[in-house]
Each structure stands twice: as C-alpha cells, then as structure tokens.
Amino acid sequence: MIAVHILISILPVVLFLSGLVLVDSYKLVRFRSVGAALTAGLMAAGAAWFVNNGLVDVLDVDRVMFSRYVAPLTEESLKAFWILFVVFSDRVGFSVDAAIIGFSVGAGFTVLENIYFLGALDAGTQTWVIRGFGTAIMHGVTATVFAVMLRTLAHSSARSRLVGTTSAFVLAVILHSGYNHFPFTPMVSTAVLVITSPMVLMGLFQQSERQTRTWLGTGFDTDQELMTLLMSGDFGASRIGQYLSSLREHFEGPIVADMLCLIRIRVELSIRAKGLLMMQEAGFTPPPDASVQAKFKELEYLEDSIGKAGMLAIDPIQRWSSKELWQLNMLSERKG
Q1: Mean pLDDT score across all residues of the chain
Q2: Are 109 and 144 in contact (CB under 8 A)?
C-alpha cells in the first residue's frame, strides 16, 4: 500500500509538469533549467521544514491557524527565491517560460514535502489523494502564478519591480491560504483544483504563444531593417539614420565605428535567436554554432572600447528589453 500512496502523492504533479513541458511549442525552457528549478524547490521545502517548526514553537499557535496564515507566507517566500533569480537575470523570455519554471519549483517543493509526510503520517488513501492531486498541484500553481505575474509586471524600473514583485507574492500567498482554509470539503477542493488548473494554464500557454509569434514577426522585421541600413552605409533621412549620423558629431571616428560594429553584432545575434525559435517551433533543433562564441567575445571587447557614455548614446537605437537580454542568454547557452 505504501507504494500506491507514493504514486498517488507524487505522480500527479510530475505528470502535470511533464505535460507543461511537452505542450510548449517553442521548447524555450531547457531540461537543465527545469532540473535546476526542481532542485531549488526541493531545497525550499527542506528550508521550510526548519523554518515552520521553529515558528510553531515561537508563535505558539495551533497547526490549523499556522497552516492558514503563517505557512503560506514562509513557503511562498522560500519558493520565490529561485523564481526571482531567473526572472531578474533575464533567463526567461515569455510567460510560458515563467510558468514552466514556476511550476517546476512548486513540484520540487511538494515532492520533498510529500515524501516527508509519507514517513510522518499514518494516513489512508484519501489523504494521499488530497495531498497528491490537491496540495501538490496547489504548490505548483501558486509558484506559477508568482512567476508569470513577476515576468509580466516587474520590468526595468525599480518601482515596477517593487510593485510587480509585491503584487505577485501577495496573490500567491492569498491563493495558498485560501486553499488551506478548505472552503469546501477537502475532496471537493481537490476536484476543483484538478479541473480548473489545466484550463487556466492552457489558456496562459495559448496567450503566450500568440505574443511570441507577434514579437517574432515585428522584431524580425525591425532587425532586418536596421541590418540593411547598417550594411548599406547610406543612413539617408530615416530617424535611425539621422541619429547614427549625429553620433559622429559627439564621438571620435574610431569610437563611432565600434558603436556601429556593436549594433551590427547585436542585430545579427537577435536575428539568429529569432530564427532559432522559428526552427524549434517547426520541430527542428539546429546544432550549436561555434561562431556565436566569437561574437560574444567581440561584444565584450566593443563594450569596453566604447565606454559607458557611448553605450548610453546608442541605447535609443537599440534598447535591450528583457526579451532581447533573454535572447542573449539563450544563445550563450548554445555556444559551440
């Protein structure tokens, strides 16, 4: 019977995560990234055991009150650490990436938590159904909500990061606490979660894929236009051309040449990354390109040569959003 309880308590969240990875058309999240997020979730669960046991003694509250009002704060905080790192270091480009990473963290958390309870509790099959299909999925969903909201709301400015992070964390805690209140019977709450979670996440995936296709189309056209302008050397009367020409009035010739070279390499990498995404959507996985590594080294050299003032000067031409920075991270992981 213990083998059955193990399967019931762990298998649902593992299958759920596998489904999320498989339905990602662009295959944006690498398996090692999923593994790292699972490991982060396991570590968060281990830390939660120590933190929660310590707080129970300090706060002197019963377990029911603790699970409703304290555990959601501590557990969502610990799950958030890895998600904050990958989002703010531009390792996720779209909502679907954030969803998979977030659910992976929640899955890792709940696997270790349920393994602990399997040894600590002498409970019947119904308890493990609730924990496997209810509590486990809840941990994955709250981490997913936090990750997606963080990716959507927390942009470059300090204020937006603070507001976005706070809003995402508060909603995750509310959802966690709401589930622990069991407004319905535990089995009904579990059934509602099992039915609604796939629908919500599939809707999120469809919206993210539409956004990805739109971004690929407009971004690819913009990159091609800028590349054509740079290769021709005839800046003409376009706004970008006029701005590029004005750089000669403020910087020495060699610095301007380095600026143009840096912009060209950035555009080349951007086009390469978008092409890679299109190939992956079509089911192809091209091998790593050894020339990419040389381009990254040249970028580093050019950035040092141009200096901070020069980098600020070209920022209006090619402002790197989180998606473009994610592109660089994606390519750097595929260097030959």
Answers
A1: 82
A2: no
